[in-house]
Every structure is written in C-alpha cells, then in structure tokens.
Amino acid sequence: MSSPSGAGFIDPKFANPHGPHDARIVIYGYTPNFALCILGIVLFAVSFFLHSLQLVRHRTWYFAPFSLACVMEVMGYIFRSLSSRKDPYHVIYFVIQYFCIVTAPVFISVSIYMCLSKLIRWATEQGFDTKSRWWLNPKIILWGFVACDIVATVAQIAGAALIGSAESNQKSPKVPNGILLAGLAFQTFAFTIFLTLLSMFVFTLYRDLDFRSASTQKAPFIFALGSTSLLVFLRTTFRLAETSQGVFGYLSSHEVFFGMLEFTPVVIGVWIMVIWHPGRWLPNGALVDLQSKMSSPSSPPAEKAGQS
After folding, report:
1. 42 partner at 20 to 30 Å CA-CA among 4, 124, 210, 243?
2. Helix 64-85 to helix 91-125 angle, to the nearest 10 degrees?
3. How many angstroms separate the CA atoms of 2 and 9, rounded?
C-alpha cells in the first residue's frame, strides 16, 4: 500500500510507532520478507563456518576478507529481520542492514583481487612472461581496485544514511540518492576494468602453448573465480539500475528483485568459493613483491607446474 501522492510505502499491517528513529514511511518500499531473512542468516552463517575452517586448515590468511563478508551478510540479514518483524519504519535498522549487505561484497571483491594476484605470482614462478605486461602487476591490481572499492563504498553508505535522514525529516532524498548513484556507478566502472584485466590474463595464459599444460590444471579454480566475479558484477549492476530509478523506483520497491539480483548472486558466489576454495588451488604464503622476483633470474620456482 502506498501513501498518498506516491510519497512512499506504508504497511497496513504495521502501525508506525513514530519513535525517535522511525521514518514516516517504510524506506525499503516494502516490508522485508522474514523467510528470506532467515534463509540469508542460515546460508551465510554456514558458509562463514566452512570458509573459516578452510582458512585455518590451508592457512590462506589473504582470503580472510571473504569470511568477514559472510559475517557482514549475517549481520545485515539479522537487522533486516528486525525490520521485518519488529519495526519496518526504523531508520537505524535500515541503515545498518544496508551498510552490511552493501559492504560485504566489497570484501568478496578484495578476496577476488587477492586470488588474481596469487595466480599472477604462481604463473610468474612457472615461467610465464609478465615483464612485458605492465597491467599484470599484482600490486596495481590489488591496491588500485581496493582503493576504488573504498571510495565507492563510502559514497554508497553516506548516500544511504542521508536518505534515511531525509525521510525521517520529510525532506527530498534526491541529492542523497545522487551520491549513492555516483558511488555505484564508479564501483561498476572499476569492476568492469577488473573483469577486463582478468579476461586478458586468462586469455594470454591459455594462448601460451608452453604454459597451457600447467594452466589447464588450474582451470577449475580459474573458472570458479571468474564465475564469482561475474556474479558480483551482476549484483553491482542491479544496484546501479535500482538506484538510477530513484528511492521509490520499481526495482527498489519490489523485493523479488532484491532476492533474485542481490541475495541469490552473492549466495551462489560465496558457495562457489566454498567448493573451490583457493587453499586447494593456489600456493600458500603471503603475497610477495613480484618486481624483485622478476628482476632476479636466480630466484628458484616455489611450485612445480604439475601441482594444484
């Protein structure tokens, strides 16, 4: 049920408590589905346990942000469930769930950047030529895209918080939504560049006939990493399209789109990496400075090409 003049959604099943933290309308555009919230809590909690177990077992500390992402998803759906059952008008519930659910994929992206950097390190140690390919510098890939994600996420969280404040004070959310949209547009642009680099790396890796046998052994993990990256990109583009329609647009006011294009891609991506965890496919150890290794011809290979 919409309030008069299309001013937002008011749930007839929930009387607005009009507390100090309550907006005049339900900012979600609907009252969150409780079953979806519980499903999210369970799936992400179990995946957190499995990721953490493999993190310790394989000592893949560089993949720790992925476990943190699972925790944030759990927290996000807990607060979303509070909106569903306790008070859908509560601005703090909305902002916290938005913060957690929007920020969690950023940590997934960081882990993806880490994995690509590790793959480049492994390929270099096996003799793959990265000297002539400046765009395969793992430090540029890792820290460059992490910086982009930080800027984009700060803009998104600020925009969401300002939207909640504007609705509480009965002001126009147009400017805050513009801030949110700018953050999402920048994040989408940056991740598009990352996907291009990932595709170029995989293409050049398999085109090298001398390296094809070794790279084929990593193919399942590379496919899993690429699939997870595409799922994260799908989720990001959905958020961009949703925000471009405005605070009470069609996409943002129908939870089915949230379930299909936010919840589902992230869940599938998280579980793909549970099954194809990098601890079973990539060499252990911290990321190293490849520039020093590349400039030292006497550096011995750390791993045989036949290992996975």
Report:
1. 243
2. 160
3. 4
CA distance 204 to 160: 41
* Cβ-contact 16, 10 below 8 angstroms: yes
Given a contact cutoff of 8 angstroms between Cβ atoms, the answer to whether 236 and 188 are in contact is yes
% helix, strand, coil for the chain, step of 5: 70, 0, 25
Distance of alpha carbon 110 from alpha carbon 106, whole angstroms: 6
Q: Give this prediction's pTM.
A: 0.83
Neighbours of 27 (CB within 10 A): 27
Residue pair 1/10 in contact (Cβ under 8 Å)? The answer is: yes
Contacts of 238 (CB under 8 A, 6+ apart): 251, 257, 261, 262
120 in Cβ contact with 219 (< 8 Å): no
Q: pLDDT tens track of the chain, all 308 residues?
A: 444 334 578 888 888 888 888 888 898 999 999 999 999 999 999 999 999 999 999 999 999 999 999 999 999 999 999 999 999 999 999 989 988 998 899 999 999 999 998 888 888 887 777 677 767 788 888 889 999 989 988 988 888 788 777 766 777 778 888 888 898 899 999 999 999 999 988 888 888 766 767 777 888 999 999 999 999 999 999 999 998 988 788 999 999 999 999 999 999 999 999 999 999 888 764 343 333 343 344 444 444 444 43
Q: DSSP readout, 116-163?
A: HHHHHHHHHHTT---TT-GGG-HHHHHHHHHHHHHHHHHHHHHHHHHH
Please answer whether residues 7 and 172 qualify as being in contact, where contact means their C-beta atoms are separated by less than 8 angstroms.
no
